[in-house]
Amino acid sequence: MEWRGRSRLSCMSPVMTDLSVAVLPAGLPDKRQVAASFSRAAASYDSVAELQRAVGQQLLNRLPAGPVPARWLDLGCGTGHFSRVLGQRYAGSQGLALDIAEGMLKHARPLGGAEHFIAGDAERLPLQNGSCGLIFSSLAVQWCADFSAVLSEARRVLQPGGVLAFASLCVGTLHELRESWGRVDGQVHVNRFREFERYRQLCEASGLQVRSLEQSPHVLHYPDVRSLTHELKALGAHNLNPGRPGGLTGRARIAGLIEAYEGFRQPGGLPATYQVVYAVLEKPL
């Protein structure tokens, strides 16, 4: 596969004037709350982002070889770590970093890596048609309720021959925490994710060519449950689902959670399994 290099769009602004975030219909996850949660976590995020760094590097390793894209987009850039990596990798290209969380953009912007830092929604990209040769998105699109819209927008924004590379999470992620809570009460305590098969169906129906699509587990270990829940909060990735319990969690339920989770203990500590989806898709010529 060859990158479709510097088209006439490289001389134009790729950014539309409307940077508004679409509001989802009632009953779906409130993306304003997702944005607020990650904005609050901007200062602490990098200190606990072991998984995010490892997954993003794996995604980078899956990018196809070829000429440098004239313009790339880091979709869901967070604190901008991979924007800076992409900026070094594709020196001379124009880099765009987009996130729904203003707090993340405020943190990332002074650190550079991209030419433009944009507030926007992956389901409604504020970018011109055919304006990017590469869209890179690591551990962001799992927060999008309408993934078909994400794929449709990626196809619109990519140049012919351009690539969408994304890493996401699917069912089975944090199953130890979910099962442990299930022994305590019937409430929603752990974020829900779509099934891997659903990713496959949506990617195959997207009009993009699926070059690779796979699921791979990534397991982290913690000395205790508090360390895991503290990390999820520091990342801004604690429970954001509708139906989650309100108010403080009582001591008895916390004790029950700890006791249940201990049943999963391994020599390296308490495991937390993330089921990671890696995909590389190409826009037909």
From TrEMBL:
GO terms for molecular function: carboxyl-O-methyltransferase activity; malonyl-CoA methyltransferase activity; S-adenosylmethionine-dependent methyltransferase activity. Its EC number is 2.1.1.197. Pathway: Cofactor biosynthesis; biotin biosynthesis. The keyword S-adenosyl-L-methionine applies. InterPro entries: BioC (IPR011814), Malonyl-ACP_OMT (IPR050602), Methyltransf_11 (IPR013216), SAM-dependent_MTases_sf (IPR029063). Residues 73-166 form the Methyltransferase type domain. GO terms for biological process: biotin biosynthetic process; methylation. It catalyses: malonyl-[ACP] + S-adenosyl-L-methionine = malonyl-[ACP] methyl ester + S-adenosyl-L-homocysteine. It is an enzyme of class 2 (transferase). Pfam families: Methyltransf_11. Keywords: Biotin biosynthesis, Methyltransferase, S-adenosyl-L-methionine, Transferase. SUPFAM superfamilies: S-adenosyl-L-methionine-dependent methyltransferases. Belongs to the methyltransferase superfamily. Converts the free carboxyl group of a malonyl-thioester to its methyl ester by transfer of a methyl group from S-adenosyl-L-methionine (SAM). It allows to synthesize pimeloyl-ACP via the fatty acid synthetic pathway. PANTHER family: ARGININE-HYDROXYLASE NDUFAF5, MITOCHONDRIAL. This is Malonyl-[acyl-carrier protein] O-methyltransferase. It comes from Pseudomonas saponiphila.
